[in-house]
Fold:
Amino acid sequence: MEHQIHRIGVLTSGGDAPGMNAAVRAVVRTAVDCGIECVGIRRGWNGLINSDFVQLDASSVSHIINKGGTVLYTARSEEFMTEPGRAKALSTCKLLGLDAIVAIGGDGTFRGALALSRQAAASGYGSLQVVGIPATIDNDIGCSHYTIGFDTACNTAVECIDKLRDTMQSHERCSVVEVMGRHAGHLALYVGIAVGATAVLIPEREVDFEAEIVEKIRRARLAGTTHYMVVVAEGAGSAADIGRRIHEELGLDPRVTVLGHIQRGGSPSARDRETASRMGYEAVMALTSGKGNCVIATKDGRIVDLDMEEALQMKKPFPMERYQILEALTLSGSKRD
Ligand code: F6P
Structure:
């Protein structure tokens, strides 16, 4: 059934990611181009609950494509996870006359969007179509090969680790660097390959500390290296603990760095700006072609729209084959068995 779209809300939710503003800009500009009004909902789903919004026109989103963070602010909303909370959100949607919402964030954001759309249908509100745009530096959303923010976060981490390598080389030290990624190792493995790490620890791979870390550092030393870089995904453990174990097992005196939230900031890379712009455009085009309740995802480099319920069930295989590449390319590479 065609859903007439006259006014849409757009919001950012969950952890912010570089490129979110480019997505907001694309949604607004495409909507205006299609003769659709746009309302910016501030602070994620809390913005609907608390009627915290701003009308957006084409000029409202000028000069933000290159800005990190989100001009709409973001938040995680416990209240929205409850039916009464969503009822408050629906009353704001009714007040504003929203036909659809574009939610930019992670899969938790999409689950909330789908619950809101279903509650709207069940409570007599009528049609409230929702579209999700995947944005998180973790790149851990099962239905999309790529999520906005991942490339910028990786570049930030690589830049920081390159700086660390300079001083580790001068002092002939071991550096243990903890990167973000929540429960996934996409960021850690991608960055580990990009910096030529001696070893990378990811939650997707059980670690035999002796065989993995200790032996790799020993082999690197035997190959003539006198400084070592170990990258740890936060979901695989704490860099401080890894540093202590390296000290105990090898007598080295590692320096530990937790990159933390620096990976969430900065001007989005070209890839994040361009991907976010295409996703924002396709999100509005999906709505105008009656494809509500979907997630805009990338698949083999293309932008596709997936049924939201199906998208939320999808799992993304971890590229474990890349772990072998990492091992083959570093001086500490494992013996071919
Ligand atoms: O999901 C993005 C992310 O940066 C994760 O990598 C990290 O574990 C988490 O958010 C940190 O959450 P917060 O910003 O609430 O501390």
